[in-house]
Please model this.
Amino acid sequence: MQRAPSSDSRITAGILALAAIALLIGGAFTGLVVEATRDPSGVASAFDSYLLRIVRFTLWQALLSTLLSVAPALFVARALSRHPQFFGRGFILQLFAVPLALPAIVAALGVLALYGRAGYFAGMLGALGGQSWPGIYGLSGILVAHVFFNLPLATRLFLEALQTVPADQWRLASQLGMGAAPAFRLIEWPPLRAALPGVAGLVFMLCITSFTIVLTLGGGPSATTLEVAIYQALRFDFDPARAVTLTLLQIALTFVVVLALTRLGANMTGDANLPVAPRRYFSAGAAETVLNALVIGLALLFVAGPMAATLAAGLGADLGRLAGESAVRQATATSAALSVLSALLSLALSLSLVMARWALALTRRTGGRTVLEHLADTGAGFVLVVPPIVIGAGWFLFLRTVSDVFAIAPVMVVAVNAVMAMPFAIRAIRPAYDAASERHERLCAQLGISGWNRLRLVDWPSLRRPLATGFAFAMALSLGDLGVIALFGSDSVQTLPYLLLARMGSYRTEDAAGLALLLGLVCLALVLTADWMGRREKS
Amino acid sequence: MMPISPERSISVEKGAAVRLDNVSFSYGETPLIFDVDFPASEITAIMGPSGSGKSTLLNLVAGFEAPRSGRVLIGGADVSTAPPSARPVSMVFQENNLFAHLSLEQNVGLGRSPSLRLSEADRAAIAAALKRVGLAGKESRLPRELSGGERQRVALARVLVRDRPVLLLDEPFASLGPALRDDMLDLVADVHSEQRMTVLFVTHQPDDARRIGQNMVFLDGGTVAATGTAADFFVGAGPDAFRRYIGSGPFAAGSRDVARKRT
Model:
């Protein structure tokens, strides 16, 4: 005898959540298919040499970005792990978490404010080159921004790997009088090597689907990726057939990469949680200490630079006038409303999947998992395979035949961002829910506490904090996103990132800097809150 | 007996007999088969080596596991397909009997109403039950303010307000020290003598079984190896497997305190 799985309301909730996600992704694919069947020759003829160049550039910039982020990160992480206690170490690690929180468009502006043609370093760089500094649009700009994002991320992930080395191994190494080189080879390299494919894969994936950075820093046709080309095909050339071709290519590309990644066992949400500095029984020599200090110092300058530039440029803007502008106020209100809705939707979907996964695992005794359980478990991860621009493009093509695409901008922004934030929200919620359920499952079954009563009396108290963490994170992601809104935005529906892009486009650099500061600070505050609540949850 | 609430004490059922009728269950590779009776209103100790199926037997009675074949009968009624909350059963686990974020009153109150809508009569019954287990006046405390032994007393208080004819104890006192465990066993024995519910008591401690057990069910290799009265088992009339299981040490010297506490 088995109780029918559907008798548990948690499973029903999970099925509804999966259906909603399927609708979102399915609608996008319908749009693509409909467009492709309407104009198959147009889709086919879009395969030209320009397209090949875009594909090549997409791969090339991702490869270079990965190399430039991951290789230095190995040394920075090692240096940080060698010195578990020094003044400012905690601050550096916190600072390295900031890029994760910053919207890409804010970072892009920071990079421009520093290295751009009119940036703070332009004079110095120009003097070095002997001519006026041309700025860093194009490949170099893309690489600098990608490394700014991914070097700290990779460093934190490698540091996490290094911290899995048991303290006893370090005690043993110091007892045996092991020098820095053999200690690296015998103790540090094995966990780093184990983490390397996953970390490199994650960074590659992030760079291959990067949209905002390439849109704002890429320069013209020679530095365009597939995602940006999709956007241009829809918004500027209005060439739907071409958009379909590009989108299908992007899907194929990400699919291959994700497939390779899952083989490598990469952690697709990329968020390292670092414990407090552990005790180490190993001391670095004087020469090594100087070298490590240099490595850490350089990384610090590279990461802190664009942030400082964002701050300085933002403060230089006429913030009072900006705050008084009705367009800014309107965009702020729109952004706030959309991101709150998006975060709520994301939490509802995530919680449904988390509960359903648990309930399904309970009904199963031994043996294999059902398709449904697999979907509830990893379904959220699949959404990462389909970049927001792809979903946006599909729906754009689908809806343009039936209604005004710009009118549904709010719905698209809320839905797509909610689904994109799900992997992060699930990471916040699932451990707490599973742990609480582990303790309470039999008790609840025995006492007949289920459905709403269970949510109210048992789950809510233990999930309050993780839900708040997930909410803040999802809201920050949605707030800073310039993906779907770039496709669907219009004069009537503008979010802060969209307004920021518009100001950049019309060369109102000061306004853009001011808005970037505002957006960056809000997102940072949200993510710090999420992080803080997550920590309190653990302790 | 001490009335928990007037209307309940009148309708209180005496213990119900529990019967596992050729119940088979498989968890992974090893199949378990139980065919055994637990007499009504008596305390039966269930012993056996690790992995012999003790907890699984209780889970089958409680409804946390479903049998592959066979029937679970409580008071003559087939409850094989009933969900746990619909069975006339209370269970006390080794740990996690309480919700950490709820007060003692709420934790006990969940035994009355799964939505925690408590009437004045319910509150009075809860207060009386907490008093009965020695926690009078601590209604608003949180579980973390209590010792391990006190937390298990709260679980027993909830058993009192639930007032079901069968009580399942899954090594509830295993993590307590010897003196505290004896106190708890005495409390169980007292409660049993008042309520006369059927008690199935899984334990690893021969002392526990001798202290309050009337009957003994010995499991070995996923099936019932022997049944009998506890007295018979401890004077050496049990099966060889049982004697090997408990070892000859403390019992070879004779009946140290056999039957000190009979209810």
Observations:
- Chain A has two domains: 1-38+319-539, 42-316.
- The CA atoms of residues 97 and 365 of chain A lie 41 Å apart.
- Chain A has a mean pLDDT of 83.
- Residues 1-38+319-539 of chain A form a domain with the MetI-like fold fold (CATH 1.10.3720.10).
